[in-house]
Amino acid sequence: AHESGAPLALALADLDHFKAVNDRFGHGIGDSVLRTVAQIFRVKTRPGDLVARMGGEEFLFVFADTSSATAQEVCERLRAAVEGHLWEALAPGLRVSISIGLSPARPGDVPSGLIERADTALYDAKHAGRNRVRSSSQE
Length: 139
What we know:
- The protein is of the alpha+beta class.
- It starts with 7 loop residues before the first strand and ends with a strand.
- The chain has a single domain, classed as Reverse transcriptase/Diguanylate cyclase domain (Alpha-Beta Plaits).
C-alpha cells in the first residue's frame, strides 16, 4: 500500500500493568487475558487490517489504505473495547487496559522508522497515564 502512495499507519499496543495481572491473578488468567484481548482485536479491526502479537503483551497493527485520522479512530475503538470488556467474569477485581502508540507513514519511511515512532508514541501513552492512544503525528 505504501509503495503505491496510499496512506498507511502502524500501531503498537501494550497491555497496561500486565506483570501485575500475572502476579495477582496467576499465569492462567494472564493467558486468558491475552487470548481475550486478541479476540477483541480480531472483532474490532477492519477487514484488511493486520494484527500480530509481537511477544509478551505487545501487539502490532498495520492499517493499509488508512488515513491518520481513521487509524486514530480504530485505535481508540480498540482501546475502549478492551477497557469496556467484562473482565470481572474472568476474575473478580480484574481490570485490563491497553496503551497504543500510532505512527502514520510519511513519505520515504522505512519499516524500522515507522516501528520506532510507534514505539516512542507508545512510551508517551504509558507516561501520560496509560489506557490511551498517542500518535507520533502529535509531536
